[in-house]
Amino acid sequence: MSAEFNKSTLIFLLSSIGLIVFPHVYHLPVAILGFFFLLLGWRFIGIWKPGWLPSNWFVLLLTVLGIALLYSQHRSVFGRDPGTSLFVIGLALKLLEIKTERDIYLIIYLAFIVAASQFLYEQSILMGAYIMAVCCVLLAVLVCINSLRPQTLPALKTAAIVIAQAMPIAGVLFLLFPRVEAPRWMLFTEEPQTRSGLSDSMEPGSISSLGLSDELVFRVKFKGAIPPQAQRYWRGPVMTLTDGRQWTQSANRHFNRFLDQPEFTGTPYQYTLLMEPQDKPWVFALDMPAKYSSSLSLNANYQLISSEMPEKRAEYQVTSYPQYNTGYITKTEYQEATQLPGKPSGKINQLVRQLHGFDSPPETYIQQLLGYFRKENFYYTLTPPLMEDNPIETFLFDTRYGFCSHYAAAFVYLMRVAGIPSRIVTGYQGGELNKVGNFLEIRQAHAHAWTEVWLQDKGWVRFDPTEAIAPERIEQDINVDRQIASGVVTFVSPDTKTLAAFNWLKGVRQLWTSADYNWQRWIINYNSLSQLQLLASWGIQNIKVMLYWMIGLIGLITAVLSWFLLYRKQKATDRVLRLYNRFCKKLVHKGIIKNDNEGAKDFAERVKTQLPEQSEQIDQITAVFIKLRYGRGSNPEDLKRLHQLVSLFKA
Amino acid sequence: MQNAINQLLDSANQIILGKPRQLRLALCCLLSRGHLLIEDMPGVGKTTLAHTLAKLLGLNYQRIQFTSDILPADILGASVFDAQNHVFKFHAGPIFNQMILADEINRSTPKAQSALLEAMEERQVTIEGNTYELPQPFFVIATQNPSHQIGTFPLPESQLDRFLMRLELGYPDHDAERALLTGQSRHNLIESLPVQLPSEHLMRMQQAVAQVYASPALLDYLQAIIAYTRESPDYHCGLSPRAGLALLTAAKAWAFMDRRDAVIPEDIQAVLAAVAGHRLRSGHSHSDAIVAPLLEKVAVH
User: Fold this and answer.
1) Does position A217 have pLDDT exceeding 50, yes or no?
2) A601 — contact with chain B (CB < 8 Å)?
3) Min CA distance, A562 vs chain B (Å)?
4) How far apart are CA A361 and CA A53, in angstroms?
5) Which pLDDT belongs to residue B219?
6) What average pLDDT does range A399-408 have in this prediction?
7) How far is A159 from chain B (nearest CA, A)?
8) Which of A519, B19, B58, B100 has the smallest number of Cβ neighbours within 10 A?
9) A263 and A131 assigned to the same domain
10) Chain B closest CA to A638's CA: distance in Å?
């Protein structure tokens, strides 16, 4: 039955449908996709062996099977995943019953819906480009169906032109169409995915594993100056409790302090944070956040927590002050910040005594300890040896090779032995400046751990023991690319000359991430609020004016496009030819059709045999036409004459 | 002037029966100062056609029978020692005539072929440092047997290109053949033919042909045809610029014969098979079939 369709059109259609469903490999259950691709393959075979296609009752059976499969996989038919699955299954079943042209149209419209459903899962530039390309293929199939001799490449070209022409209208609709925010209950719930990143506990080696990942964590765009490298501490979870090996957050961190706000001094930094999807609601603000978006809250450890879904990219406005005083410490906090897993060993006590931990003010002791790290043979490495039991002592006295987490843990431990309240702060340090978009990119490799010590009259003060060992870690940016490639920590220093190709690649990557940033910032995050802001800046205040603008602009674009198309057509054929074509059109009513390859004179001879009574007129028209088109000198009278003759001619 | 042409063609049609189109094309070729190649089986009237045209136009006519042992000197002429005056004297060969019938040109060796073809192109002959002009008008009708016949040296493409047109005569139809069989001997008829178009007239016409106008719209069509031969997979090599010029010249002559001062697409279509056939596919006869896709697929406007 489907033999009446061109084989290549069917192949084209089926391949494009395969391409459309393909990205769902990441989202939909294997069983459903298997069902889809099985039916698609079946239909492919059916192109050559139409007899193998299932009969009506078998399609019915498959439908029942498909619905059962859908229910078994999702236990529901509502929501994003079951809905998408439903469309995919419906598309597959419809493929098996291509009988008329209408079925192909239906399949193509279904395919457009499935293509759009990809955006429910992913909204990146690449996915946008992919869906656009696939839509182009779908349109090309429509072009093929409607052309006498379907040819793939010209059809694709036509489809691309159609898409290009639709772009300005889509742009206007995107900007001006009223945006209705879906109510909360309609939003799709998603199952959390496991992602790498900082965790809510810290073991000596936990951060160094992140050091090998260049995955983007967040981006920061500053309003005004960007803080110097040494101040870029992005605060994450604070580790207070320890069992000697593992560090965990305080259970009391959710109790918002009944303390005053920290006292802020110095110049504030205003910035926009664009968090990549995460599995934890943590927002990494520059130490120390003072003002922040209303969807955020500060916990007792001064860490910003988001109430929004961390599964999506989210944007926050934060203001931070580099200088602050957190004031006094509560009793619980004090207890927790001096907690030790057991009695410290003699060796430790001796070390603390040697550094005047017990008999000098905390500031002096801190300087002594940092000096100790600096002077003794301590090494900073991403791949420290394993320290199974009692890692702090092993690190301090035996191996002396460690990453930031080792130093932070040892530092806090030694502080607590001396009875000074202290804790580990995890987060990110530094960030790579994207010169194209002028924003900072913070990757997993920037993960860091530092410490805070509570000092009288100063509150919690940040100390970074890593700075004592490897000051370049703090002062310069990590060379992320090389660190990932070789596992060796190196730093981007301004004076070393790096390879040009390397810089070029870096430039390309920055360009890409900048494009990605702007895509997220201006396309994905364009909601009703930003629409109102944008329109207000153009002087459009209400929806009515907005709708007028939209209709007006679309009308204008349509007018420009149609003028362009009509004008082009006019240019391609001159007036003489148009008049002659009008004559030919009149003859078409009589069933006399001029062949493209037929000269005017030959055509006239042919017409005369069929319309002998009009020979004279036909001869005149032909003679004037030939004179105008091929003759040496032609004058405006001839054109007028041709016009008259053609107008008078009645076929 | 066109009346003279029509009278000439009428007379020729009395001799060569049932081939008005070929005769018209042959005359068209003559008016465009081109040379003519007739390719067909022996005995279909190639020689008669050449002889008739020569007689009607009042041209000095010489037939050169090409054989496998013919030498360039047999065509061009040679210097012979004059024993009385003790000098070498040039004896002009048969080529020094206004109309040459080079019969069975592909039976000779390439060396002899090229001697003739060079003379055709240059319209002069250089022997031992002396250049001799060929008479005006100068017109070569070469005939060749289909190349699958034994003992032939097919002309290479480069030399085929020297001929403006290639015609196939073909067998006469039933009525023409009957008229031929019942009528007088062709030879006697030719002898009694009057001169219809003196050579001064012919040369004036040749000049008038060059004045025929080709409009930009017409050149568009011509270029579309040339472009099609170059791009289409139907042809293994496209038409050369020289072929394009030849096509235009022939079309102008055709338009002139049709009493028009401007070329129209029909003129190009009329001469296309004769002008382009041997250039597009040298090994094959049936020029009409060769150019059929061109006529069918290239739109006139």
Assistant:
1) yes
2) yes
3) 25
4) 87
5) 93
6) 84
7) 25
8) A519
9) no
10) 16
Is the Cβ pair B264, A597 closer than 8 Å? no
Q: What pLDDT band is residue A396 in, cutting at 50, 70 and 90?
A: confident
| Residue A603 with chain B: CB contacts under 8 Å | none
pLDDT at A271 over 80: yes
Residue A1: per-residue pLDDT:
35
ipTM: 0.86
Picking from B213, B214, B300, the nearest residue to A599 by CB comes out as: B300
Q: Cβ contact (<8 Å) for A631 and B296?
A: no
Contact call for A597 and B299, based on CB within 8 A: yes
Interchain contact, A629 vs B217, CB within 8 Å: yes
User: Are A288 and A416 within one domain?
Assistant: yes
Per DSSP, B213 falls in state B
A487 in the same domain as A366: yes
Confidence category of residue B164, pLDDT binned at 50, 70, 90: very high
Nearest CA in chain B to A622: B264
- The answer to the question of residue A130 being in a domain is yes
Does A582 lie at the interface with B, CB-CB under 8 angstroms?
Answer: no
Whole-number Å distance between alpha carbons of A284 and A297:
12
On whether residue A288 sits in a domain, the answer given is yes
The DSSP call for residue B193 is: P
Residue of B214, B217, B300 with shortest CB distance to A596:
B300
Neighbouring CB atoms inside 10 A of A69's CB total 18
User: What is the domain range of residue A634?
Assistant: 573-648
| Residue-wise pLDDT tens digits, A142-154 | 888 877 667 788 8
Residue A599 to residue B265, Cβ atoms within 8 A: yes
Which residues neighbour A275 within 8 Å (Cβ) at sequence distance 6 or greater?
A: A217, A218, A283, A284, A306, A310, A313, A314, A315, A316
Q: pLDDT tens digits, residue range A591-636?
A: 788 888 888 889 999 999 988 888 999 999 999 999 888 888 777 8
Q: Delineate the domains of chain B, giving CATH numbers in brackets.
A: 2-209 (3.40.50.300), 211-301 (1.10.8.80)
| β strands within A256-398, DSSP E | 263-265, 269-275, 282-283, 285-286, 289-292, 296-298, 304-306, 314-320, 323-325, 379-380
CB contact under 8 A, A629 and B215: yes
Based on the domain organization, do A110 and A34 belong to the same domain?
A: yes
The 3-class secondary structure across A490-541, one letter per residue, is: CEECCCCCCCHHHHHHHHHHHHHHHHHHHHHHHHHCCCHHHHHHHHHHCCCC
**What confidence tier does A497 reach under pLDDT thresholds 50, 70, 90?**
low
Task: Flag whether residue A376 sits within 8 Å of chain B, measured between CB atoms.
Answer: no
Higher-pLDDT residue of B162 and A506 is: B162
Both tokens assigned to A293: 């978006």
Q: How confident is the model at residue A37 (pLDDT cuts 50, 70, 90)?
A: very high
Burial A490-513, CB ≥16 within 10 A → b, else e: bbbeeeeeeeeeeeeebeebbeeb
